[in-house]
Every structure is written in C-alpha cells, then in structure tokens.
Specification:
By secondary structure, the chain is an alpha+beta fold. The chain has 21 helices and 23 strands. The two termini are 52 Å apart.
Length: 770
C-alpha cells in the first residue's frame, strides 16, 4: 500500500437523503480553524542546539520495504523516506501542505486551459547523493512507474499519476513542466517522496532494488546500516546536503514493541518513543514519587507496580508456604517469591530512571470512529444506523479518553479532515446530535418494538455471523480476548459485581449501562414467570390424577380398562407454551435487536474497549443489545473488518491532506463483481451512494481550491447523513522524551523537520545568570 493509500485507509462511507446546502467557514488561512491541539516538541532555535550526537527513536518494526509506493510499506518506511528522500511538499502544524524550500523555489499551475499544466522550479542546489542534479528525468521515471500502464511495476495504486499526459523539461534544467490529460486538484500530493530514476527507471529496480537499501538519497540524512538482528536502522548525516545541516550525527530507528518501551527508555536503549497510556502513567507516577507526592501503599507496600496488588493475607500465605513442611511446595513458592522480588526491584530501578523523562502530548492526525456494517442485518436499514448514531454522546466518549490526559476533548466533526486543515468543517448536524427520543422514534419507524415476540432459537445472533462462537479456541489471559472485560448483557458473577476485574481493582465506577446486580438482559423476564407458572400447573394436574388413582385403589374399585377409549378418562391437554418476548429490549419479526460489537483484545487497545463499553451502555438505553466480541489484534482487521464479519466496530483512520484523492476508495459505493461478491475497495462499512461518488469525482477535478473543498464538505454532510461511520475523537499522541532533546516529541498534524532535531547546548554562565 502506498503512503497515500494508507492515509486513505482513513475515513468511511457515503449516504443518501436530500440535505440542505452546508457551507464551510470562510476562505483563507482561517479556513478550517485552529488545530484541536498544537505540536508539543520543545521548539528550540538552531543556535541553541548542539552539533553532533546520536538519537535513538523507537519504531514498531523495521520495514519490509523502503519503497513507499509498494503494498507492504509501513510507518517506518515513511519515516525513513521523510529523512532521506525529497519531500516537495510537507505538512505544517495544521496539517496543510506547503512548499518545501529545500527542494522547490516554487510550484504552481501555470495553465488551466486547454489542459492543466503545473510547473516546478527546483532549488538549484538540490542534488542526489551521487552528485547528479535532481531533475525532469526523475519525475518522468516516477510517473511511468506509477501511472498504471506497465503492469510489470508492482505498485499499490496510481491515483493522480494516471491523469498525467506528459512531463518535460522547462526553459532551464531547473524547471519541470507536468501536463495533465484530466484536471487534478490534488497535484501537490504527487512526487512526494521523489525517488531517483535509478529506483523507478525499470520494473526490477522498482520492485526489488529499493526494498532493503537506498543507494542514492537526497535528504538531510542518508541511509546507513539496517541490522535485523539488533532491530535498528541507522540514518547518518548527508555530507552532500545543501540545506541547513542536520544537527545530529546519527538517528537510530530502533524497533521496540510499545509494551516494552518504558523498560527500554529506563535502560537507556531509547531517547524518544511514542508510548501508550500505561507507559505515560508509569512516567507520571515516577515523577510524582520523585517529588514525594505519593506515599507507600497499605502496610508499607509499594503504591504501584508488581508489589502493589499483594495483600497482607497473600503475603502471609506465601511466607507460610515457602517455610512450610511440604518441601516441593516450599521450593516452588521460594522460587516464585524470588522472581517476584526481582520484578519489584527491577520495576523500582526503572521508575528511578523514568522520572527524568517528559511526556509530550498532542493529538495524532488520526481519528477513532464507530463503524456500522450496512451490508446485512439490522444495520442495512439506514434508520437503524441513524438511531445508533443519535444514541451516542460523542462528547462524553471523547472525554473518557482525552480528558484524563489533559487534552482537548472535542468530538471530530468531519470524516474528511481534522480541525486546522482547510477542508475541515463540522458537518455533524446533517445527522443530528445525541437525542434518545429521536433514536427511539427512528427504531419504531423501522418496525422495532419493545416486548416484541421472539421466535428465533435462543442464542441466535443478529448480524453477519450467526454461528456459535467457539470459546475453547480462545486462549486465556490478558490481551487474548478472555481477560474479563465487561460484556453488555453478561454478568461475570464476580461477587455480584458486573464490572471487569480491572475496574474492580482500580475502584472505578462501572461503565455506563452497568448495574449492581444481574444485567437486565439476563434478569428474569416475563417469559420466565410464565414458564414457571406453566410447569407448576402441569405438576399440580399430575399430582391430582395420581391422588385420584390412589383413592380408587384404596376403596377396592377395580382398575379401569385402558383398552376401552370410551371408558378411559381423557388425557390432560398439553400446557400451552408461553410466548417469549424481548422484554425491555427491541424485537422485530421474531428476532431481538442484538448487534455484534467487535473489538481488538490486545494490551494496547484498553481505551477502545472502554469506549466500547460506554457505547454499549448508551445503546441499551434505547433498547439495542450488543454482544461484545474481543478478537486477537492480528485478526481484528483482516478477519473481521475487511471481511465484513461485524455489526459494530471501533478503529481509527489516519487523516489526509488530500481527501478528494485519498478518501475516495473509503467512501466509494460498493459494486457487485462478476462472481456475485461485492467490490468494496476500502469501504468496510459497505455503505455508499452514487451522489457521494459524484461529489468526490467533481472535487478531484476542480482546480478552484475553494470550490473543491466546498464539494468535499457537501460529500461529508451526506456521509454523516448515511451514518455508516461516526467520527468520535482524535487519538491522543503521547511521546516520552529524554531531557535535553529539542524539536522532537508529539508532532500532531505536522511533519518532523529532521535536520533541526538535536540535543540542547549546555547553558552558559550568562544563561544561568538569566
């Protein structure tokens, strides 16, 4: 997948309804408003940053390819490309594309009729690491590799490049003229990154030559050694760089799983690392402990960490077992106690080191959304999707995740842009805000009623999956899907507390919708009372018949001749089976309204699961039951979202500076294939309309930028109305930073400026006096 295809894995679907014209907020620099959260990068002028040094920066994995236009490119591919290859346009702090003066003096549309012509004027100092000037030959080679006409090139997509008719040199070698056969609004998205013609000139070089090495580069850094054994990729200062030289000697990208990053930071293996909420909490606790604000736990036990949960009774029992008469048990317990002591000591040492780190905070260029599968089941009805959306308190959901972190908790108002970007406008009014009565009315209009008759077999599921889940195939333990998280409609039976084990340990309140007792979904319903009465009536009738027979025998009356039907007493009529109803929940056509809610089970998805619990509680208030299914992270997207095996799901999409191009496949109306299957591109909610597609097509071909953005806003309003996906909040960006590091941290919507990252100079005597 290319960089823009991954960015375009970023929004969701399309809609119906006649809507009023929704206009955005003004033009110019204020268009799109302010970013929800700014960058937090310890901005420092270059004169106060030392020359030299090494920075160890955490990444999730080492890349399988260094070619961003291949399907298996990832975030690390893009980070390396950003530091070593030409980026003609970069994103500013508001996520808006701006000319990068290191490569371009200017770039503009110089002709619109009869055809669009864009002219690039290159920085006259810009050269590849082999000394050759960056020029038209590199543009031509990349266009031919990516325009889709030569199938020998293994490209992820060709959006934009397929609209180019020709590329030629301008009046000088520094000018490149690109002529389009169709107008293309997102022309700034092209040629970033720009590869040398040695990479894009032939299919072999493109397919294989840039997977594990980049011999020719043109950035502030060059690519050094990639060591799979140590999990590191070294970027070294480019001696041929014509711009302001990189402050660092070496930037070492180090692959460390997120759960292991706090320990790696403490051990000195990392200087800069994006971390999850748990890692940020550890650093916050370390800093509080160092300031003397946290005392020990009960009985002098640690207030947090591996020793915090040990009760005095458990400690006493452990001691008794370790020094008991059963030698085998004593040996095992002694070993366990030693491991525990080692972990407590290690944790304490890590906390001592972590207290020096700072957590930089912003909001990622990514938003979390509730996706609704409109292909089948109850959610195929737009009224039901709209009812689910109207039941949500999006502000409350944003606060659950962002407020504890001190970040702005404003819900995202667009599928196609984020606050700060010029295309942004809050179009959520096209659907409407939280309104329980409106949601209930929509469900009633769709035929769903409380107390409806249930004829489907007990345990049958609504939605795309009706087969019984095989829990025996699910491993137990944290992060496996069997970790005790609350499921709406299910009482975990833990001392009558329906909360998860984790919530009880923290002493948190139960999630919205949870109660102190059996879930109403499983509480005795009218059906239970009727069934009990019927069974009692049958038992009484049998008892009376047995009593009468016993009396006749006692009087010596001969037994009746059962062979004579005329003389035999009639058999009692079978008791009428009571009617099952949905009680306080909704039902229609004999089926209860129950939605399968799929969530990832991994250790980094705790916040998603918490939001899922809150959503389930909100839906229960309007009579909609949810069955929460937690699945392994590696199968969540592939086996459930992409394949359509879900009703509801929570996941995040990256935002894009080029929505007319990047969001098109996410909202494209699914089309039937020859074999009867549905071609959905990346529209995993399967909701789309011809009108939405037309608005995207108009926007991508509209060269008036304001008009193009207005078309995108109209498309977004209709996406809201269709309620295929509901944007909730921007994801938090939490980055642990070692003391003294400048111009790095939580970059928010902007791109890093790699050459400015470095270590602050030691303060001089004059600085100290100030």
């Amino acid at each position: 997948m290319s960089q823009r295809r991954r960015r375009s894995l970023a929004l969701l679907t399309s809609g119906v309804l006649a809507l009023p014209l929704l206009t955005g907020c003004g033009a110019g620099d204020d268009e799109g408003g302010q970013a929800a959260a700014g960058q937090d990068i310890a901005t420092t002028t270059r004169d106060k940053v030392a020359d030299g040094g090494v920075l160890r920066w955490a990444v999730d994995t080492l890349p399988d390819t260094l070619n961003t236009f291949q399907a298996d490119a990832d975030a690390t591919t893009n980070r390396i490309a950003g530091a070593v290859l030409p980026q003609l346009f970069v994103l500013d702090a508001k996520g808006r594309p701006v000319v990068n003066p290191d490569y371009l003096e200017k770039a503009e549309i110089i002709e619109r009729e009869p055809k669009q012509v864009v002219q690039y004027k290159l920085n006259q100092k810009a050269v590849w690491s082999d000394g050759r000037e960056i020029g038209a030959a590199d543009f031509v080679a990349q266009w031919r590799a990516l325009n889709g006409k030569d199938s020998a090139y293994w490209t992820a997509r060709n959006a934009g490049y397929d609209r180019i008719e020709k590329i030629e040199k301008g009046k000088t070698d520094l000018e490149v003229r690109v002529t389009f056969n169709k107008p293309y609004a997102d022309w700034r998205s092209l040629f970033t990154p720009l590869y040398p013609k040695q990479v894009t000139g032939t299919p072999d070089a493109f397919n294989e030559g840039a997977r594990g090495a980049l011999k020719i580069t043109a950035g502030p850094f060059g690519l050094g050694a990639i060591d799979k054994k140590t999990g590191t990729a070294a970027l070294t200062r480019n001696a041929r760089w014509w711009g302001r030289p990189a402050k660092l000697d070496t930037l070492v990208l180090t692959a460390v799983p997120r759960a292991e990053r706090p320990a790696a930071l403490a051990a000195g293996k990392l200087d800069l690392a994006e971390i999850d909420r748990a890692g940020a909490d550890r650093i916050a606790l370390a800093r509080r402990d160092a300031a003397g604000k946290n005392g020990p736990g009960a009985g002098g036990a640690p207030a947090h960490g591996p020793g915090a949960a040990l009760t005095p009774a458990e400690a006493t029992l452990s001691w008794a077992t370790a020094f008991g008469v059963d030698e085998e048990k004593a040996a095992a317990e002694t070993e366990s106690r030693q491991k525990h002591l080692d972990s407590v000591k290690r944790y304490a040492e890590e906390q001592t080191a972590l207290k020096a780190f700072t957590v930089r905070k912003s909001l990622e260029p990514t938003y979390t959304q509730l996706a609704m599968n409109g292909a089948s089941g109850p959610l195929a009805d737009e009224r039901v999707r709209r009812a689910v959306a109207r039941a949500l308190d999006r502000k409350a959901l944003a606060e659950v995740v962002l407020k504890p972190l001190g970040l702005p908790a404003k819900p995202v108002g667009s599928h196609l842009a984020l606050a700060g970007q010029r295309a942004y406008a809050d179009n959520s009014d096209a659907l409407g805000g939280q309104d329980t009565h409106a949601a209930q009315a929509l469900l009633a209009d769709a035929g769903w009623r409380k107390g409806g008759k249930i004829t489907e077999p007990a345990g049958a599921k609504a939605g795309p999956e009706s087969e019984q889940q095989d829990d025996s195939k699910t491993p137990s333990g944290p992060g496996t899907g069997n970790d005790g998280l609350y499921i709406v409609g299910q009482d975990d039976g833990a001392n009558g507390d329906p909360r998860s084990t984790e919530d009880r340990a923290k002493g948190d309140t139960a999630p919205a919708g949870a109660q102190d007792g059996p879930s109403p979904v499983l509480a005795p319903a009218p059906f239970g009372a009727q069934q009990e009465a019927s069974l009692l009536a049958q038992a009484a009738q049998v008892a009376r018949a047995a009593g009468a027979e016993s009396t006749d025998d006692a009087k010596g009356v001969p037994a009746r001749d059962e062979a004579d039907p005329a003389k035999a007493s009639p058999a009692p009529a079978p008791a009428k089976q009571p009617v099952r109803t949905s009680g306080g929940m909704l039902a229609k056509d004999g089926k209860a309204l129950s939605l399968r809610f799929v969530l990832p089970a991994g250790p980094g998805s705790e916040s998603l699961r918490t939001v899922g619990e809150r959503i389930a509680g909100m839906l229960r208030k309007i009579g909609v039951n949810t069955e929460t299914v937690k699945v392994a992270d590696d199968s969540f997207f592939k086996d459930h979202i992409a394949s359509g095996q879900y009703d509801l799901a929570l996941y995040s999409w990256p935002a894009t500076a080029y929505p007319a191009t990047d969001a098109r496949p996410i909202f494209a109306k699914p089309e039937p294939a020859a074999d009867g299957s549905l071609l959905v591109e990346q529209n995993y909610t399967r909701v789309g309309t011809d009108h939405i597609d037309q608005l995207f097509d108009q926007a991508v071909g509209e060269l008036d930028e304001e008009q193009s953005r207005e078309l995108m806003r109209k498309a977004d309003a209709r996406i809201w109305a269709a309620a295929g996906s509901i944007p909730l909040f921007q994801r938090p960006e939490l980055v642990a930073v070692k003391p003294g590091l400048a111009n790095a941290g939580a970059f928010g919507l902007g791109a890093p400026r790699y050459q400015d990252i470095g270590w602050k100079k030691a303060p001089t005597a004059k600085d100290k006096k100030k």
